[in-house]
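Hi D.,

Good news: the full-assembly prediction came through. Inputs first.
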Amino acid sequence: MSNKDTAPHDDKITRKPFPNSKKIYLQGQIHPQIKVAMREIYLSDTKNSISGKSRPNEPITVYDSSGPYTDSSKEISVHKGLERIREQWILERGDVEQLDNFSSEYCRERLQDKSLNHMRFKHLKMPLRAKKGQHVTQLHYAKKGIITPEMEYIAIRENQRIEEITSIRKQHKGEHFGAAIPERITPEFVRSEVARGRAVIPSNINHPESEPMILGRNFLVKINANIGNSATTSSIEEEVEKAVWACRWGADNIMDLSTGKNIHETREWIIRNSPVPVGTVPIYQALEKANGVAEDLNWEIFRDTLIEQAEQGVDYFTIHAGVLLRYIPMTVKRVTGIVSRGGSIMAKWCLAHHKESFLYTHFEGICEILKSYDVAISLGDGLRPGSIADANDEAQFAELETLGELTQIARKHDVQCFIEGPGHVPMHMIKENIEKQIEVCDEAPFYTLGPLTTDIAPGYDHITSGIGAAMIGWYGCAMLCYVTPKEHLGLPNKEDVRVGVITYKIAAHAADLAKGHPGAQHRDNALSMARFEFRWQDQFNLGLDPERALEYHDETLPADGAKVAHFCSMCGPKFCSMKISQEVRDFVAENDIVDKGLIAKGMKEKSKEFKKMGSEVYL
Amino acid sequence: MSNKDTAPHDDKITRKPFPNSKKIYLQGQIHPQIKVAMREIYLSDTKNSISGKSRPNEPITVYDSSGPYTDSSKEISVHKGLERIREQWILERGDVEQLDNFSSEYCRERLQDKSLNHMRFKHLKMPLRAKKGQHVTQLHYAKKGIITPEMEYIAIRENQRIEEITSIRKQHKGEHFGAAIPERITPEFVRSEVARGRAVIPSNINHPESEPMILGRNFLVKINANIGNSATTSSIEEEVEKAVWACRWGADNIMDLSTGKNIHETREWIIRNSPVPVGTVPIYQALEKANGVAEDLNWEIFRDTLIEQAEQGVDYFTIHAGVLLRYIPMTVKRVTGIVSRGGSIMAKWCLAHHKESFLYTHFEGICEILKSYDVAISLGDGLRPGSIADANDEAQFAELETLGELTQIARKHDVQCFIEGPGHVPMHMIKENIEKQIEVCDEAPFYTLGPLTTDIAPGYDHITSGIGAAMIGWYGCAMLCYVTPKEHLGLPNKEDVRVGVITYKIAAHAADLAKGHPGAQHRDNALSMARFEFRWQDQFNLGLDPERALEYHDETLPADGAKVAHFCSMCGPKFCSMKISQEVRDFVAENDIVDKGLIAKGMKEKSKEFKKMGSEVYL
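Then the structure:
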């Protein structure tokens, strides 16, 4: 037994709050019991270098996916799991019941296996399930006109307190792609988007620890971080730490893609300690149960796996139900064939049995399970392109048509549904891809992996894909699955997760700016003002990765004095454009020559005076 | 005297060839004396895992900016400088003369200063200059219908031997933005684009060491790497090494932005050892000569600086001649004022003197100097936006109008001219920016810094800007000025230069794919085929940074066996989609069921057989 297979240690889990930041909780109005977690960043004063006067700067509130891990007032133990903030909301709806035991056979077997005791999460609760005949999904409530606490939570969260800050929202002179984001996100708007099927709130009733978040093109673009061990590497503790680390840096959502041993136990630890929704690809575990032989998979194994994971609290399942027998030969002439793991497993199954996969033939049965727990379905793109040469080809778009059909079936069952997309797509073909998805899948949210815009940079695929991700986010993609620098090469470590997440936060935020989300630009403005005023610490703290920014700054100018210096190492004091620019601004402002017409008059009189001021006013 | 100020050492300069690669030289047809340097990457054989047969793979030829540094057959000494490959071409045109001494007063002073001996480049040659009345620019020749050796070199280089490789060029179903790239780049096409002013070949007659390259939207997108020391840090040796390092990783061009002491000597070392064109911002050095007091700058100092640098061999000058007095008040209400160093220096000068800058009033004089050496002019965007809030504003576009006027003046003088652009621009405003530039500046090549698509990620601005760079490259931008992770925080070190260059190579290449450049996609295809066939070493070697890819792979699977393994650490052997996909392909191919119509028949018969093959065929 290796030390991979033991319970994680509390002291290994990152708990540091962000610098100069405080966790705040905003109360709901429709549902006063909800407390929306946000991060407030405190700023230093602006000092006028001529008058010497100071002016305070209002704190900036930002969206915060890090959960209680950055709240130093909360006690956290990975062994107990996070606070179950949604439990009362769920119970108060009166449509669920607590079971006496887990419904999955496999789950019960694992629980009885004493050899697993040392790695087991101890504080297991019995699962909830819909009462007979009930659909407990957010889509069901939305259709009925009910604004749930989850919906109000999301509305407050998405707005990021924009009323409290000076927002210079960039006018939308550029291209816009059909998104219709209101000036203010209301709970009713959230409800209507969910009811329309244009947005999804992944929120399993058995994952009450998660803070509600929404996927949809009229909301902030979300990002997903994949974690999970594989047969060749990594431990439970590492995976829990990666999950916490991912949320800390901004993952709105994580997927546990474990394929190694003990993935049932690993997943329990991750879900109980995850403040964000957790997705999985159940076919991976089902394949483990079939000893890795794709042909031996069947509906019974898969069904039991769905129930096992639904009762643990997985918030959405990726299911590759669109891989049809007749599409498989379309992949043969590709440069890279089938690159989706789930897709290739199902293709193999289909060929071996010469029939359509049980995912497709039992799709209604899948929906029956999912609506009893509010597990959302992420329709997997098993035939996505794995190279530039294969982008937007016949196989990809044929499968997409089938995903469109399945979307309608899921919606009929009140199952929340979104669609996965590629992969590898050159820039000029990205728009065609999402336009087709929006059309074929009736505006169901799109969730893409990148896409990578070139194949030639292994080691840098967070960047090749970050480009495509930003673009497709702008075009309306709801969630971006991150890619780390290790893509195609190895399993990401903690630092890779950090770089992958930050890269994708950048892509998502760039997309939010371009979409004109009302809660996006205030952070850019605050940071740029800090930059212009040489408030170095504020510049670091307002950034996506304050620690990295500080570290880079200190590499060249480590002295504390440099944090208040009115220049930096790049240009040095004499060449600082910001400094000169400030002088120009002060001069023009003081001489009241903002109006161009006045410049001739104002200037002539004052040019000598300005000359006297010289370049020394700021030193 | 610190060790910053000494001559560089030969043994410190990177000279390692790329793995499995050879430098090759292609001969010209019109000009048989030219030898176009390219890199040939050798690939391993493809092995059919069922039949055991091997099939060789043709080597791939790629564009190579690394110069002789990656040619192990060349002897190089930084003290002698690189081979002067263009010298004969220049002399044979018969329109230049060698001077007896340097024309710049400052240069002569420096040469007489014995205290600088220890840091001086020893093998100085006397400069060339146009004979009286001659214009020695590529634009002049192009207008006259002359195809120069530089033009043929470029045509061969841009094609990347596409006739020798199997190219699956992606059909252009997506959006295209007016670029008109032929299926094959001919010398005549190069000439016509230069004559039209739509392309520029930076090629100072005093920098014969440089390998010709072209900037224009109908060619491969180029990238620039900024190097140069500042008052607070770095040495001559470091800067030369950064330059070599930058070219190695793919910089098509470098800018020496030194602002510290001894920038004359530093520049000499850089130019003599640079296989790519070198640009500068002469106002930086002029300001040093004016002791850092912007108001004390004047045309005489500037003029002497232009001549000093032109005779050293600088290939293009950034000149901020578009900062007019009436534009300055437009920047006052900005969030970040003026962020260009050159722009702020000139703004300060204009305000102090209350008149238009000498760059504007002496623009014809500048052109007179430039056409005597074929220094191209890069019209600086002194009023570019420094934040999302300031993008595409009145000040920026007002200056652009002036740059358009100056473009026409430069062209009148046969001076090659291109235009600098921002900066910080959200995604939805990038297209407006370049469309305006193309219109106002009559299709002169655009050269942008990024643009950064958000302000909120200090420490990751290579990525925030890489997104914008890829997009604007696709829209037609000719050259992308890199941004390193240290942007806004500190001066880049060698590793930052590497990451910045690779990020920008990605952006440029993604743009080339999207533009449909005929020489772009073959490398993606070759790499993806290698990936699909588990030719790990080929995958690394075909990538932009082979060493980094290998290093990442080895972090999880260091064993040599893993380099031939038919799986990787991400999925492990059982879950490998590529492996399963290969099985599917082999099965479908062997059973001749590529035609969908045949699948029912073919499958039914063979499904049992496939089942027997199981998942073990590849292990």
